[in-house]
Design brief:
heterotrimer, A alpha/beta (268), B mainly alpha (212), C mainly alpha (220), A: D-Maltodextrin-Binding Protein, domain 2, five-stranded mixed sheet, 41% helix, B: 212 residues, MetI-like fold
Amino acid sequence: MFKTKNFMKIALVSVMAASFLAGCGGDKDSKGNSKDVFAQIKEDKKIVFGVKHDTRLFGLKNPSTGDVEGFDIDLSKALTEEMFGDDVKPEYIEVTSKTRVGLLNNGKVDAVVATMTINEERKKEVDFTDVYFDAGQSLLVKKGSKVKGIEDLKKGTKVLAVKGSTSAINIREKAPETTVLEFENYAEAFTALKSGKGDALTTDDSILYGMAEEDPSYELVGGTFTEEPYGIAVKKGNKELVDELNKALKSLKESGKYDEIKDKWIKN
Amino acid sequence: MLDFSILTNYTDLFLEGLKITIIVSLIALICSFILGTLIAIMRIAPFKLLNWVGTAYVEFIRNIPVLVIVFFTFLVGNFGGMIAGTIGLTIYTAAFIAEAIRAGILSVPKGQMEAARSTGLTYGQAMRMVILPQAIKIVIPPLGNQFINLVKNSSLLAVVAGGDLMYQGDLISAMTYATFDTYIFVGLFYLIITIPLSLGVNFLEKRMARSN
Amino acid sequence: MDFFAPFIEVYTADHLRFLLEGFWVTLKVAAASIVLSFIIGGIVGTLRYAKIPVVSQMLAVIVETIRNLPLLLIIFFTYFALPEIGIEMEITAATIAALTVFESAMISEIIRSGLNSIEKGQIEAGRASGLNYIQTLRYIIMPQALRRMVPPIVSQFISLLKDTSLAVVIALPDVLHNGQIIYAQKESYVVPVLVMVSLMYFIVNYALSMIARRLELKQI
């Protein structure tokens, strides 16, 4: 009696667990293999953008409303309207620097608009549109810090960055004497900076502006020491989607709508 | 099959990580042993207030994630990742060690305390010279287990840039893009520490069982 | 009074709802992993106890290896390394998979030692009454062993619930992850948020351990 009741309960819960897992895996057909993404978008009447959820000004989830807000979101909405009018609805999924390429490749997202710098390495894995924003790597310090630029990052100083980011790699090259501490994401790195774990935080100036806006006792110093042109990434081989996005981007720039969106978010 | 060049190219990082992991685990073990013993004594001492404080500590710390404790010590304290991680690990492990030691002390027959007091020793002296030494024998296998847990939990330093083996592994896998191979090597390094410890604890447990 | 200001700022209805949403994810992930690891751990533990040649030894190696690795490593490996050999999982599935692998190994040990703690005399008595090995296992050994295993198994469940917090590193939207988003807004938010997160874990885990203690007392 004891064991039969137990087995029944276990069987019931494991059926629930199994269906929960199945639900987890398959909420969206993977669009990948040979089907053209652009055609699929028109067919499904929706385009899925991968955006950041943790980057103020570009892609930030608002914990009170649950919405994601930022330049990348507004730009992608405008591009969708430009390309498809009302026929296709934009949807948003969270990506991080680590996951964005993987999610493109397995079809969970159609395009990545997530502060992604165009470079030769990445061009081997994904296709990029034209540049939609010019950023550059810079440093964020507490106002009044003795660090005024990259030359001040001498031995004994500590710089914070995000694990595996190009900023982390660059800063090690450009300031080889400083100690670099890497964290899981920008929020953790900034929280660490605010707790005094480092002298400066380094990543794209666009992202740093968001942090300075959040806490004005921090400022950017030293200007930019690299060029980080942002592009929208799509799965390799989807030329039509890239061309359409480029066309739409160009017409947004010509009509002034691009500047409107940019001025809304980037106030420097 | 596995790309061994990762191992050879980054030997210094792997070894640095291994060194930090071992040092952090040892320091945390010693500190949590001291703290744990203190708390265990607080729980059984004949003072209601101490009992309550000790029990509150154990019950609270044991039921919350160690990562939360580590984040707390890292963000609220003025320490770097490695030290904050060590302190966090100590706070957490001490709660478990306190339980093990308390169980060990309680398993020493009551008569021992009475006999010790009747020869003129104070409570503190009786504890130190008669009860604790016997309790510690029973406590060594669970202590060994806690040490293994400590080594595994020390991997949390990776989340606060603590320079341990897991952290180095993260950096290396980001630099080489060979996540699979790198983490296999990291795993092997952990096993080099934990498996001998595990066998050691098993051996001790069998010996304890036999001597009973 | 200044000390409490951040607490009041943080404990708004919106923030608390956000944290509870995260805690709900924590509970769901833990529940799925618990059930799966109980099943897998039960099977593996029983197979090891039965001392089947080759199978039991292979399982022993696998279990010992997993038990001696950090769970954080297993989580990273499942989410970041497996895609390299073609196994892609999204965050929730990867968390459940990693937790299940680790906890199954742990539970298989509890089950194996639980079974081992039943005296050999019981098996002999069972065989003597005409039951075969499997029947002896099912009707005589298991019920007694299961009763002994309840406290360590509940304790392992509590561990599992706490361990889900490790998945913040792969951005699982659990309570700790949502807490991080809240305290990213202001440095003074860190303490109130972590206190609330700890309380949520504490309440659930303490309740579970009380239930375990009740069950333990009932058996005697």
